[in-house]
Amino acid sequence: MTTVIVLNGGSSSGKSGIARCLQAVLPDPWLTLGVDTLIDAMPSTVDDGIDFAADGGVSVGSGFRRLENAWMAGVAAMVRAGARVIIDDAFLGGAASQRRWREALAGIEVLWVGVRCDGAVAAGREMARGDRVTGMAETQAEVVHRGVVYDLEVDTGVNEALVCAREIAARVG
């Protein structure tokens, strides 16, 4: 039985909208936890944490990784305790990011979903939102998918979040 759905896509690709729709269409309660939740929870004083460049680039250091590893272990513990979780993430390290999640979620049934969106479409959403560093969406549109293996891929540039969520829900066993 699937107890974790991992949504991986670039900034403004539509992951959060899909996650909200999944919560509405799936029969059981699912928690949504995202990398933005982790970033918001971090104190600004983390040494070697996360930096957002003016051009939209994002770099993370060892301080961020240390807290991220603890967070991932905590998410896995919640699932092992009976929660179902939708993870909303952007694999900046591509396959290496997926490997970290695979290690944390070892022994748990996971549905890996790639959330694709053309970089120009995501950039338009980013501009409309106004809460992201300009350039993140276009920069991340493809890099987050490099070397990542999925069970399913959806495209929010072609389909609305609800359509994508229903397609994902149909794969949840």
Overview features:
173 residues, alpha/beta, 5-stranded parallel beta sheet, two-stranded antiparallel ribbon, globular
How many runs of DSSP E, i.e. beta strands? 7
Query: Number of helix segments?
Result: 7
What structural class results from the helix and strand content?
alpha/beta
The side-by-side strand order for the widest beta sheet comes to: 2-5-1-6-7
What is the distance, rounded to the nearest whole angstrom, between the alpha carbons of the first and last residues?
Answer: 5 Å
Oligomer: single chain
Short description:
By secondary structure, the chain is of the alpha/beta class. Helices cover 43% and strands 18% of the residues. The mean pLDDT is 92.
